[in-house]
């Protein structure tokens, strides 16, 4: 766990309030990209917090509750499919991260960001593979992942039940591609992501 606090420790001497930032859903065909910003108490070590992709859904849910309980502040930001199509996924991810920072009830003095730059006037460090090397970023990845998964399994799946959103979370699985071809895209599908998919599928007929 000490390794996951190495970045935080480096900057705690200059900044008390450090936020970790991460996003999920960048590679999906459907739905918002969701970002989280998490400020944890100085020197707090949370056992089992790691890159959300390395954790089981059950473990993520348990850690989500723990992080929400222990965090100084948590902010969530979204960028929808229309925004992704308009400004591209990289810029939309950065926008969601900015919105997450703006939702924090406590103003951070420094940001640790998973391999990105957030467009805010706050000192920050882009950390490659940050969700696996920084506890703050890992905590943000868990909050973002659970938040988006709950939307997929609840509101979004209820809105478009034929597409299997609860199962594949909007990623380009065989089921998702088949339903897209059969039913066409919804308003929540990222049109800019679908051109190649449909071009590839046409060659099969």
TrEMBL record:
Q: Which domain of life is it from?
A: Bacteria
Which residues does the record give as a divalent metal cation binding sites? 22-23, 114
CDD domains reported for this sequence:
RNase_HII_bacteria_HII_like
User: Any idea where the RNase H type-2 domain is?
Assistant: 16-205
Report the EC number(s), separated by commas if there are several. 3.1.26.4
Q: Supply the Pfam families for this chain.
A: RNase_HII
Spell out the subcellular localization from the entry.
Answer: Cytoplasm
What biological processes does GO assign it?
A: DNA replication, removal of RNA primer; mismatch repair
Q: How is the cofactor bound?
A: Manganese or magnesium. Binds 1 divalent metal ion per monomer in the absence of substrate. May bind a second metal ion after substrate binding.
Name the chemical reaction catalysed here. Answer: Endonucleolytic cleavage to 5'-phosphomonoester
Query: What does the record give as cofactor?
Result: Mg(2+); Mn(2+)
One GO MF term: RNA-DNA hybrid ribonuclease activity
Supply the enzyme class, top level: hydrolase
Q: Which keywords belong to this entry?
A: Cytoplasm, Endonuclease, Hydrolase, Manganese, Metal-binding, Nuclease
**Cellular component per GO, a single term:** ribonuclease H2 complex
- Role noted for this protein: Endonuclease that specifically degrades the RNA of RNA-DNA hybrids.
Q: Can you tell me which family this protein belongs to?
A: Belongs to the RNase HII family.
The entry's protein name is Ribonuclease HII
Q: What is the lineage of its organism?
A: Bacteria, Bacillati, Bacillota, Bacilli, Bacillales
